[in-house]
Amino acid sequence: MGKNKILCEIFSQIADALDFLGENPFKISAYRKASRVLEDYPTDVEEVYRGGGITALTSIPGIGAAMSKKIAEFLETGRMRKYEEVISQAPQDLLKLMDVQSIGPKTLKLAYDRLSVRSVQDFKRVLADGSLADLPGMGHKKVENIKDGLELYERMSERIPLGLAFPIVQETVREIEQLPQVKSISACGSFRRMKETVGDIDILCTGDGGDKIIDHFVHLPGITRILGAGETKGSVIFSDRYQMDLRVVPTGSYGAALQYFTGSKQHNIHLRTIAKGRGLKISEYGVFREEESVGGREEQDVYRVLGLRWIPPELREDLGEVEAAAADSLPQLIQSDDMKGDLHVHSRYSDGTVTLEELLDETRRRRYQYIAVCDHSRSAKYARGLEVETLMEKVENIRKLNEESKGAKLLAGTEVDILPNGSLDYPDEVLKELVFVIAAIHSWRKEEDVTHRILTAMESPLVHVIAHPTGRLISTRQAYQVDMDRVIEKAAQTETALEINAYYDRLDLSDTYVRRAKELGVKLAIGTDAHNIGQLWMIALGVGVARRGWCERPDVLNSWDYEQIIQWTRQKGQR
Ligand code: DGT
Ligand code: CA
Ligand code: CA
């Protein structure tokens, strides 16, 4: 696929540059179109060209004679004169700003000619120091627009943590599905695949009267900008940060569209390659043999015609799932309904806001069997870590509550700090009184490699889980230095579970580590790290990570019954 990608990029850069230079709009749009076609094209153009020359290239839909010549030139010589010519007249870095809604090619050209602006940085400078505003035709209002647009653009180019998108998508889907015109609706894209961050939010529906649906969508509360609203697609920005697209497709192609827009792109490319080998074509409109439709109403259709089992969205990253589906060896992924408890929750004893009674009620309300109450240990002063005496009082209170409770139980636990030398923040006699011990690193020196601290903690038979093993925060903090290969190996040896911390800004372990852990037989424990009731829903995010890590029920402690968990923790203690 190498050459397609390069050519796609080249054509896109030519289009931007021509736009900047004020060229003919038809020419510009021909380059844009060629770029889009190549981005998506399942066969290597080089192969096409070697097979049938320029004529074969021309037969690619969207690639005309002029473009075919340029592709051929590039394939033959490794160069494209048009590209070199155009690029030499337009500064690449500056042209990135063409993506900003309030900045057009004319403004960029003006800044280029009059203020010698050559880069994004230059542009920001002339915007800040007022020299851009002094140019003819700029005006106060226009400059303010540019500033706003640029700020929005930079905010929008950051990826959004899945957990922040979650409530927005749920609410939007609920609003739209109430409309009488709507038959089916689903989120798709990276959101449906439960990726830990999403670029934008994609929603798909089918029904009659697309314009009405779209109109309702673009006027939902919280929407701060409408980027576009047609009969089949609406595009908006919610709360100045989240881009959301809603597409309305015909019922007959809803399944095919859902499959297409769920991606990932790599997964889809893999499927299209298989389809091609079978004389089939799959697109967002359906599955076709020649011109005849052979499916597309249901998402299943797309997989069925390729002789594959339906693949859960969380696996669709082209990381072996297509092969597994072909061999009928897809995992039986864990599901939210399998969750029998939450294995990391804080109470009022440390820095949470909830009482033990409230947690027990919540255990029942969520139809869980248990919640592990894991408050901070004594060194965690900033988080009101418990002194031994208070901890023992808590254990006693949990014992009493459990005695009177049928069904639901609290697990008396702690989130014990792993101290700088790898020892634990409570002595063994204290830890022995607890049912569920998760150990974590909360402070480390800059540049410190914490691997030995974690390995040492895992050697204790009293530690059941290592909490948030890498320490990263998605939006603000990189992981500490830790050799995760060694941690995972040691977890396997010592039968220590690793946490999937489900708090939206942690999601730690992340999917790739989860998959590696699972492959070595390491158990995973999903914990929300909730400090109040309103955070318990995040278990769904943890389940998403587990699914992306190919986990099945036996891999995840919280899918086990209360008795099984207790037995497992005792066994570890007796090693
Ligand atoms: P994101 O938004 O960056 O987190 O990632 P996605 O996966 O949601 O990507 P997005 O929003 O660009 O497009 C949604 C899905 O639509 C994507 O997963 C696959 C499909 N799709 C979009 N553009 C293309 C394309 O150019 N080629 C192919 N094969 N699929 C595409
Ligand atoms: Ca997306
Ligand atoms: Ca999108």
Summarize the topology.
Blueprint: H1 2-20, H2 25-40, H3 45-58, H4 65-77, H5 81-87, H6 92-95, H7 105-115, H8 120-128, H9 139-156, E1 160-161, H10 162-177, E2 182-188, H11 189-192, E3 197-198, E4 201-207, H12 210-218, E5 223-229, E6 233-238, E7 242-249, H13 254-262, H14 265-277, E8 280-283, E9 286-289, E10 292-295, H15 299-305, H16 321-326, E11 341-345, H17 356-365, E12 370-376, H18 388-404, E13 409-417, H19 428-431, E14 436-440, H20 451-459, E15 465-466, H21 484-494, E16 497-501, H22 511-519, E17 524-527, H23 539-548, H24 562-574
Helix pairs in contact: 1-2, 1-5, 3-4, 13-15, 20-21, 22-23
The structure holds 2'-deoxyguanosine-5'-triphosphate (DGT) and calcium ion (2 copies).
What's the gist of this structure?
The protein has 575 residues and is of the alpha/beta class. It has 24 helices and 17 strands.
